[in-house]
Amino acid sequence: MKLNLLALMLTVMQIGSVANAQVIEVIDDRGNSIRLEQAAQRVIALAPHIVEVVYAVGKGDTLVGAVSYSDFPEAAKSIPRVGSYKDFSIESVLRLQPDIILAWDTGNGADKINQLVNLGLTVYWSEPRTLEDVSKSIADIGILLGSTSSADLAASFDATLTQLREQYSHKNRVSVFYQVWNSPLQTLNGEHLISDVMSLCGGHNIFYDTAALAPIVNIESLLMSDPQVIIASGMAQERPEWLDEWLEWPQLKSVVHQQLYFIPPDIIQRHSPRILQGASMMCDQIDRARQVYSQYE
């Protein structure tokens, strides 16, 4: 009898150990512990860049909901929409019965995300502020969705990042104005991921110390800073016509030395593996400017 009881206890302990081994846990960008009993099978992504990450780790088939402008890869266009990243429908989210929601902190807004949390839904908060954070997001999302390739993808991302850093970050600093939009004149501060890309490339964001993450600035402050390079993105994949409006300010160094550049927004403003394509392009642009200005030192 004692032997049978001991065997039963050992069996229970083994079952408990197996169950605990199956629990999935990561820490999101808010410092929350996200625990799942098994890999998520029904996923809603509340930002286009998160959709890209899910596909990149090989788990696009788990997506049951996404937001507007989730257009990469091509298959993402067919995912049911729950609204826009700024104004998604909580009713639509609930109707899809997700195992997990992958949310974008500053994009979706804390108030809206907290409504989902208060309804008992599991939410992973994503807010990459550095390129290393993008790598972490790739790894985290891969773990939560049971990907077998996310670790390799994150490692490849890190290797390319290290290569770019070794190639560019130690070079002479170049002052940069990154232009999101022309009217109103909008840029990004030092807390934003794109400012980290500038630093990687040996560039300095002239609005690094501005309080707002995506501030509206005036032309006077830009003229005073007189950046060596102006890099624009805009909303479309083509170079915006308004980039040439800077030619109306011939006193700017960036105009005098023809240092006006464009990077397609999808490869620089989306916090996905593709951001390294945009980073490589930015590093090349800043390095070209560096070579131009070195002639006048």
Automatic annotation (TrEMBL):
Q: What is this protein called?
A: Cobalamin-binding protein
According to its UniProt entry, this protein's organism is SAR86 cluster bacterium
Q: Where is the Fe/B12 periplasmic-binding domain?
A: 42-290
Q: Name one Pfam family in it.
A: Peripla_BP_2
Any one biological process term the GO annotation gives: cellular response to iron ion
InterPro entries listed in its UniProt record: ABC_Transporter_SBP, ABC_transptr_periplasmic_BD, Vit_B12_bind_prot
Which keywords are on file for this protein? Signal
Q: Which domain of life is it from?
A: Bacteria
Task: Return the SUPFAM superfamilies for the record.
Answer: Helical backbone' metal receptor
Q: Does this entry carry the keyword Protease?
A: no
Please list which residues make up the signal peptide. 1-21
